[in-house]
Design a protein that fits this description.
The chain is α/β, with parallel strands linked by helices. The protein is built from 7 helices and 10 strands. Helix 5 links the parallel strand 7 and strand 8. Helix 3 packs across helix 4 and helix 4 packs parallel to helix 5. It is globular, with a radius of gyration of 18 Å.
Length: 223
């Protein structure tokens, strides 16, 4: 579903990504792991076409990311999803839903709002939402699009333990999706991911979660 071949990216004279190769199969849940500044955001932005690819090739669902048709099968949730605070939760969802189609599916809207436990709060302005509610509404927009590939950048960043658990339970409930998510929480990676893509010194290595834990986390407290 996701394939990256010989991807390199540099800022000024510093090489951030050095001939990255990565293949993520259909229905895999793969975590992107690396230290701060390792290039995780650079990799994701390159995948999404937000950064031009200087060297290498990226395909998403069989489509080159240099063309537009890949956008029909990919949804992206950034660390901070920009919603409209003066609109209600339902109005925000309706607006973003209308961007993908002239027809808004009312039944699907209800289904997704219930899935993220926001149906009862749908008529509240999002300026009054907690951070966890805002993150679940962003996730709701992604799920409304119903794409095969979901890409997240730190989906639980800044959430309290309850908010994190709510997001994780939603992700666990999904089926038929391929997920690629940047995260630095190894406990949540162990809960929902099948693989880890480890980015270090510009190089990429893919492991199963167990392989990564054994190689990099033995003796680390809280791993």
């Amino acid at each position: 579903m996701i394939e990256i071949k010989e991807l390199s990216q540099s800022y000024k004279n510093k090489k951030v990504l050095n001939n990255i190769n990565l293949k993520i199969e259909r229905n895999e849940y793969c975590a992107l792991v690396g230290r701060n500044g390792a290039g995780k955001s650079t990799l994701i932005h390159s995948m999404l076409g937000l950064l031009p690819v200087k060297k290498g090739e990226i395909t998403l669902g069989g489509f080159s990311n240099k063309k537009e048709n890949w956008k029909e099968i990919v949804s992206y949730l950034p660390e901070k999803f920009h919603l409209y605070p003066h609109l209600t939760g339902e109005e925000n969802l309706r607006f973003f839903a209308s961007l993908s189609s002239s027809h808004v599916d009312e039944k699907k809207m209800e289904e997704k709002l219930k899935l993220v436990s926001l149906w009862d709060d749908r008529n509240q302005q999002v300026r009054g939402y907690s951070k966890g509610m805002l993150q679940r509404l962003g996730l709701c927009v992604m799920l409304y699009y119903d794409t095969d590939i979901l890409i997240f950048d730190e989906p639980t960043s800044g959430l309290d333990p309850l908010g994190r658990e709510e997001i994780l339970q939603i992700l666990k409930s999904l089926s038929g999706k391929t997920i690629f998510m940047a995260s630095h929480h190894m406990d949540e990676i162990k809960q929902i991911c099948t693989h880890v893509a480890f980015l270090e010194n510009g190089l990429m290595t893919k492991y199963t979660v167990d392989e990564f834990s054994q190689k990099h986390l033995q003796g680390v407290s809280g791993s």
